[in-house]
Amino acid sequence: MNEKTGRPLRVGVVVAIEIDAVLERYGAPLEEIREQGQHVRLYRRGGALLYVLEAGAGEIAAAAATAWLIARFGVELIVNFGVVGALSEEMATAELGIVESVVHYDFDSTGWLDLPRGRYPDQPAVLLETTPSLLALSEAALPGVRRVVCASADKFVDSAEAKSALRRDFGADICDMEAAGITLTCRRMGVPCLLLKAVSDALTGGGAEFARELGRVSRVCFEGLEKVIAALA
């Protein structure tokens, strides 16, 4: 519940390809909205209204979905859950991580500006930070969960060599294809964001492990998100 207005807290939930975890858990929504190429399912959970948007994979889709939820429904925060690849041996399959910062490693303006790879001209650093208050709330709701740095771009990373390079270059723990689009959009629009991720493929894993673990790990991640939403509202 929004303490200032006394109305349900409006939460935008951006989902790439893990929508089955939501449908299995929540079933039929209160309402379905299909507009401007977007598909939103509306659920009520405690003191929160969840606007669950099935965006599809990739940074562009995630950024568009995030901006549309904020502009169309006036959501007060954005959350994202999903599966990711591990960039180190320490991140085990199905382990949960709360994203504290993101690097869009495919953004590279070095041929034009004197900025390091991954740094946007309008942002203060390479790493895009998420919302500290939501990080703290999530840690309280999920004891033992670790904070992670996410390397994000429109690339599925399926080799240990490529994963190790992201770890070396950016100090990242995990990689995905949506986190940068969501985080950058929220920062620019002044809306808090929280990203909860779970590992689907290990450092030496790839596409086959991802496909095999997608459903199971999506459910693990969404169960974690439910606990955070309950703490929020």
Give me the secondary-structure topology.
Blueprint (H helix, E strand, L loop, with lengths): L8 E7 L3 H8 L4 E5 L2 E8 L2 E7 L4 H15 L3 E10 L9 E9 L23 E2 L2 H10 L4 E7 L7 H11 L3 E3 L2 H11 L3 E9 L5 H26 L1
Parallel strand pairs: 1-4, 1-5, 5-10, 6-8, 8-9
Antiparallel strand pairs: 2-3, 3-4, 5-9, 6-7, 6-10
Helix pairs in contact: 2-5
- The averaged pLDDT comes out at 95
Which strand order spans the largest sheet, edge to edge or round the barrel?
A: 5-9-8-6-10
Spans of at least 5 consecutive residues whose pLDDT stays below 50 are none
Largest sheet: 5 strands, mixed, barrel
Topology pattern, helix = H, strand = E: EHEEEHEEEHEHEHEH
Q: Helix count, per DSSP?
A: 6
Q: What shape does the CA trace take? A: globular
Share of β-strand residues: 25-35%
- What class do helices, strands and sheet pairing give? alpha/beta
**Helix share, percent:** 25-40%
Cα Rg:
17 Å
Taking the alpha carbons of the first and last residues, their distance comes to 5 Å
Count of individual beta strands: 10
Description of the molecule:
This protein is α/β, with parallel strands linked by helices. A five-stranded mixed beta barrel has the order 5-9-8-6-10, surrounded by five helices. It is 35% helix and 29% strand. The chain contains six helices and ten strands.
